[in-house]
Design goal:
Strand order of the largest sheet: 1-2-3-5-4
Number of strands: 5
Order of helices and strands: HHHHHHHHHHEHEEHEE
Length: 413
């Protein structure tokens, strides 16, 4: 027994005229697999209406019934067949209407089914198909009226009445089709807007998480570099005085505790699934720069600061935060790769011009603790931060064997 596969559908479409199967794939995609309660109600009403109109038309033309008349038997058979076929009118509206059209010339019982099919055609097919078939139905009214005249009613009145009725049916179907298309378009727009909103929320959440992770990278790198420097100093100087060892151990303990707190915070943020990351702790700015430098000096680093900023104008928070991160990254790199070398931090700028931040360290001493491993992404993230602020970042070795990190960012007044 032959089976029908999905690949046979395009073949069947090629065998039929394009106007006969137009929009069939669209209807098949929109049509549910099973009839809903509303579909059953509409189908039953359409079936009963077509049967009632068909019976009225038949007995109006053949008041004595079939009575052995072959034409009457054909009329009844056609009416019953096309009335039953209304259950499949959504799938083949064009084919059923085309098949019923010739019977409309002499079969009065097909009139009810023909109107329902014409209405279904106007609902499920575009006007370029509905209009020609509707005109054909109107043309066939003339021979029908000539074959079955209505006593006491002029032929032109009957033709006009049928034309008005068919036009109203087509117009009603076109209105239903337009309303369905409007509802489908609005539903599609709403779904698309919801998808876009979800996408925007997801992007915003990912961007926020990336920003927080970048901030935490800078903070953790600073903490861990302090840990590494003090641990390396203890390893390099095992005979250090007890006070120095105790001080270094205290710094290691405090830095490890703060690093764990920072790490717990960033992991908690990245694990959160909702779009609200929760309250965020205040980010450091240039006002926090002295505390950062004091922390580095307490760890044993030789840091010289030169800050030349106008006292009467406050640095914007975003600009100050970026400048703080530049200094923090420069000090972290100096501790990693040039432990024990003097570091000079320079911050200068004026509103309307720009803010320049420079961290320069001298050549590292010949004997120093080994540098802790790094991912090499600190400078990359810092460059992205500065460029997003509209600035420029340069870095590289100096002629005396040291290293220089410089950032310039615009300072809007």
């Amino acid at each position: 027994m032959a089976t029908t596969t999905a690949s046979d559908a395009p073949r069947r479409r090629r065998l039929l005229p394009a106007w006969l199967v137009d929009d069939a794939a669209e209807d098949a995609a929109r049509r549910p697999r099973r009839r809903t309660a509303r579909d059953w109600t509409v189908d039953v009403v359409a079936f009963l209406l077509a049967a009632a109109l068909g019976a009225y038309g038949f007995f109006d033309v053949h008041p004595d019934g079939v009575d052995g008349d072959l034409l009457a038997w054909i009329d009844v058979a056609a009416g019953v067949g096309f009335t039953v076929a209304l259950w499949w009118r959504r799938r083949w509206p064009v084919a059923l209407l085309v098949a019923a059209t010739p019977f409309g010339v002499f079969a009065s019982s097909v009139g009810g089914a023909g109107m329902v099919l014409l209405f279904s055609l106007a609902v499920h097919r575009p006007l370029r198909l509905v209009v020609p078939l509707s005109v054909l139905q109107l043309v066939l009214v003339v021979p029908y009226v000539w074959l079955f005249p209505e006593p006491g009613v002029p032929d032109w009145v009957l033709v006009l009445f049928v034309c008005i009725t068919l036009t109203a049916v087509v117009a009603w179907g076109a209105v239903v089709r337009s309303r369905r298309q409007l509802v489908a378009s609005l539903r599609e727009r709403a779904e698309r807007a919801e998808r876009e909103q979800q996408l925007l929320v997801t992007r915003a959440r990912d961007a926020e998480r990336t920003r927080i992770a970048r901030e935490m990278h800078d903070v953790l790198a600073h903490r861990i570099s302090l840990l590494s420097m003090h641990a390396g100093a203890l390893e390099f100087r095992p005979d250090a005085p007890a006070d120095d060892v105790a001080r270094a151990a205290g710094v290691i303990r405090a830095s490890a505790h703060e690093a764990l707190e920072d790490l717990r915070e960033v992991i908690g943020v990245l694990r959160r699934d909702d779009a609200s990351p929760g309250p965020e702790r205040p980010q450091p700015t240039l006002d926090d720069l002295p505390a950062l430098l004091d922390e580095c000096r307490a760890a044993g680093a030789q840091v010289d600061e030169r800050v030349a900023l106008p006292a009467e104008v406050a640095v914007p928070r975003s600009l100050g935060r970026n400048a703080y991160r530049v200094v923090q990254e420069g000090l972290t790199n100096a501790r990693k790769h040039a432990a024990g070398a003097p570091v000079r931090v320079t911050v200068s700028g004026v509103p309307g011009g720009g803010l320049e931040v420079e961290v320069r360290n001298a050549a590292p001493p010949p004997e120093r603790p080994p540098a802790p491993p790094g991912a090499g992404t600190g400078i990359v993230g810092l460059r992205e931060r500065v460029e997003l602020a509209g600035g420029d970042l340069t870095h590289g070795p100096t002629v005396d064997g040291g290293f220089r990190l410089r950032a310039w960012m615009p300072w809007q007044p």
